[in-house]
Structure formats: C-alpha cells, structure tokens
Fold each of these.
Amino acid sequence: QVQPAESGGGSVQSGDSLRLACVMSRFTMNYHAIGWFRQAPEKEREGVSCITRGGGTTYYADSVKGRFTISRDNAKNTVYLQMDSLQPEDTAVYYCGTKRTILTAPLTCASDEYNYWGHGTQVTVSS
C-alpha cells in the first residue's frame, strides 16, 4: 500500500477555482474507494466528496454540491477535485483518503471509515 499524495492547494480569492490532485498506486486506484476530506481549524474532519472504486457513484456534501466535481483518471492513477466558486468557508486542509472495498459496496463518505491518508494540502480562500 502506497500512501496517497495530494497536491494543488493554494491561496485564492473568493469566486476563484482550484483543482486538487491525489496520486496513488495502481492497486489503490483499482481496489479502493477514494474521497476528499477537509479539516478547518478547531473542526472535525468532514467528507467533501467521494467516489467508488469503479467510478460509477459519487457523493458530495451539501455545502459543495454544484461547485465541486470529483473525477478519476485511471491512466494516471489520480483522483481530482475540481473546486469552483470557492468561498472563505472552504478554507481548510484537504486530505485524500482511501479504503479497500468490494466492487458492489455502497458508497460512504465518513472519514472514520477510510484507512489510508495523504499528508494534506492547504486551501485558503480570502474574501
């Protein structure tokens, strides 16, 4: 198991966009559900968006629906989180998490169910 690695964070203005990337091993890409989570100061880690290992099902937190898009590039072993119309409340450290699942498993996006984590990437949105 190779630890996933995030990139793409930064400091932007309200209304701007960022694209986060999570690179992982081929095994993880093929056999794990993958999610993006975030943790703001003094808050618990929350599930932002998750995708099944087959890529057919996605989940979005209500706070990001219509603004964020999760996608997989199997050839690059990378999962992306496109974040548009960023707001100051999106400021947090964003983590990529993965968990081994069977192909038919229903998608869940609770952070305590994910086992493998990257180190995180900071996203700061100024008003």
Amino acid sequence: QVQLVESGGGLVQAGGSLRLSCAASGRTFSNYAMGWFRQAPGKEREFVAAISRGGGSTYYADSVKGRFTVSRDNAKNTVYLQMNSLKPEDTAVYYCAVKSRVPSDSYYYAGFAYDYWGQGTQVTVSS
C-alpha cells in the first residue's frame, strides 16, 4: 500500500505560479512511475503530466506543455509539479498518482494505469 499526500495548492491570480508537491510513503519510491491529473467541477479527470521512475522521461498534456514542469526527488520520496503562467482554466483539484509496477523507465498518461491516488489539492486561478 502506498500513501500519497499532495500539498501546495491555493488561490493565485492568472499569470501566477504554484508548486505542487506529492510525498509518497514506502521505501521503493524510485521504482514508481508518477503522474499528475486534475479534475475541474463538472468535468472528467484529465491527465496533466507524467514522469518515469528515474526522472529521465516526462510527458505533458498539450494544454500545459511549456507552462508546467514535473520533477522528482527520489531521495525525498517526492514528486513536484511546477505550474507557471497559470490560467483560469487550470482551476481544478490536482491529484498525484503512483504506478508501482514499472518494467522500464517509462511514463504513463492513462489514469487506469495507476495503482494509488492521493486525496488531491485545490488549485484556483482567478482572472
């Protein structure tokens, strides 16, 4: 069982920045591929960003490419999502997720691929 705790959400004006963190339990964090997803009110959950277990490969949704950066610190069992140039349409609850059985240094963008999810952190971008 892996537990995830997100933090760093909040209220920010359009054009501003936030950095989300996701701390994971367990001693094998470096074996996990990680992902960030979000869900806005009345909408389905959508993929935001993913990072491979070693951090060497990343992948982004088109809507955030060039504005968001995913990174990880395996020594701290933490994955980050740096969000710059935020827009009102980025408003959502952001979730991190773990894929615990990863055969290679790959990333995953499908939600069903992930085994564990955090509780989420609210990000609100005002216009």
